[in-house]
Amino acid sequence: MDLTTPPLRLTVIIASNRHGRFADTVADWYLERARLHDDLDISVLDLADVDLPTALSHEPAPEVTAVLDRVTPQLESAEAFVVITPEYNHSFPASLKNLVDWHFTQWQAKPVAFVSYGGISGGLRAVEQLRQVFAEMHTVTIRETVSFHNAHGHFDAGGTHKDPEAPNGAAKVQLDQLTWWAHALRDAKSVRPYGG
Question: What does pTM read for this prediction?
Answer without folding.
Answer: 0.95
